Amino acid sequence: MLLPCHHQADNWEVIYQDADTNRSYTYAQVKSTAITFGTGLKSVWEWKKGDAIALFTPNSIDTPAVVWGTHWAGGVVSPANPGYTANELAFQLKDCDAKALVTQKALLPVALEAAKQAGVPEDRIILIGDERDESVRYKHFQSIRNTAGTNRYRRTKLDPKKDLAFLVYSSGTTGHPKGVMLSHSNIVSNIMMLAAGEGPNVSCDGGPNGQGDSILAFLPFYHIYGEFNQISSKTAFLTDSRSHVSHSSKYIQRTEACSHVQIRPREILSHNTGAEDYIFLCCSSGRAPTWKAPSGGEIRPQLSPNVKLWSCALDARAGRSRI
Question: What is the distance between the alpha carbons of residues 236 and 214, in angstroms, rounded to a whole number?
Answer without folding.
Answer: 5
